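Q: Hi! First time doing this. I have a protein sequence and I read that you can turn it into a structure. Is that right? Here it is:
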Amino acid sequence: MIRPPITKLQSFLVCSLVAAAFPHALRAQLLRENAAPPPQQIPVKQKVQNPSSVPTPQGKKRLSQEVQLTGEETWIDTGIDIEAGEHVLITATGRVRYSDAKDDNGPDGLPRDFRDLLRVLPFNEAGRGALIGCIGDKDTAQPFVIGARRHVLGPVSGRLSVGINQAANDTGDGTYAVRIEVYMPEGGTAAVVARQVSSLPGIDNSLFSKIPRRISDKEGNAGDMVNFLILGSEAAMQRVFTTSGWVKVDADVKDTVLHGIIGSLSKESYLTMPMSQLYLFGRPQDYGWAHAEPISVVRSRNHLRIWKAHFQVNGETLWVGAATHDIGFERDQRNNGITHKIDPDIDLERDYVEKTLTSTGLVTEISHFLPDNPMKEAKTATGGNFHSNGQVLILKLDETTPNP
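A: Yes, that's right. Below is the predicted 3D structure, encoded as structure tokens:
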């Protein structure tokens, strides 16, 4: 991965000082978009619903089950598989008490306060002790707030887990009784999302002859591999990233740190480090997206750059991207400076992009393409190695979800 040497002492010192001040778990969160999520998806930014305003879903009830969740558990597997398009009504009762809290709390959780800056919570936009849920892989799917009562529409098929919004080393005493009711989707048939296909129209070697295999720095030094394409409008592209928890990266480190620290209690921010400008099609990236947690983004984060192609594929907008996973620091062999070290198995980050975006239900088709003379091994401009099976991920986005 190409990264210019970090010669600006200010940027490095700001990162180091903030990391030192909050060494373990500053959950100041990446600045999110203000746009509201589409109504048929589990929102990224969520408020606990007023129980009295949550109606019982229409349609045939498929199952009803109750589980017990003790304050010593963060997540439990309910054993319930949800189909895409099914309605899930979850209600909860009970109390949990934390040793440092003045009062015990119910499933809506405790009000957030300054101490939440130093806690590692599964869902940082809700209070400690809130009941939360997740459909699918907990490592890649966005969790959602349940509280005392919530109605969610399954965006994809997957196992339902419920948990308590608390750190693994900061558990409470008590129990929540959680009742789960699953209702059949409209029409009685599960929605078809993220369909795996062997090929997509227009995705062929003639297309890849127009796309450089690698991005570069301003001086033209080759860097990261182009490892994914997205077909969809700009609105659809932004919607799928924000819904899956990816966020735009601030361009200025000073603004980034201030936004992260000051905004942390607003339930709308995450601290992110600036992303250097790299080039494809002769210009810097149109968007930089990051999927990171606490201040560890100083040394570790999932991130990508994406460019809008100057040509279309069968009348559809094409976005060309390069994704890598920062895992630490290393010496820049060009100048002995400091640069980020990437995971050399870059296919893992390509797969991470696929899993996070498809978990939203906003991806209609998935394909992989192996171009002629695929890139399987190379060095970054800073001297690091990376390897790949050479395949490029292609995601086709849903354009039917209305813009908020």
